[in-house]
Specification:
mainly alpha
């Protein structure tokens, strides 16, 4: 590892404001993961639409639009929650790994 890379990693561990490298890495990993799903990965996917359909099937028609809107909001909140905690987990894990290496 050259000196410039060493300093870059050291700065990344000491400066919480500088997350550009980590964000780029997360974006790359997400794209890589998304394109290389195995059958096992697909088997464990969350079938949110199926759950929504089952719920909406038992809701009276007059309330279905309202419940559908709530389910859409819930989906958005759940997705944002997962993204936030996954990014936090991986960024901190990456930082800890670099600290161990250094």
């Amino acid at each position: 590892m050259n000196r410039k890379c060493f300093c870059c990693f050291n700065d990344m561990n000491t400066n919480n404001e500088d997350n550009e490298l980590l964000r780029d890495w997360l974006e790359f990993r997400f794209e890589k993961l998304e394109t290389n799903l195995t059958d096992e990965d697909k088997k464990h996917a969350l079938n949110y639409d199926t759950f929504c359909e089952k719920i909406l099937d038992v809701i009276p028609d007059k309330d279905s639009d309202y419940v559908s809107d709530i389910l859409d909001d819930f989906r958005e909140e759940l997705l944002n929650y997962c993204i936030y905690w996954n990014e936090k987990y991986y960024v901190n894990g990456f930082r800890n790994s670099i600290k161990l290496i250094l």
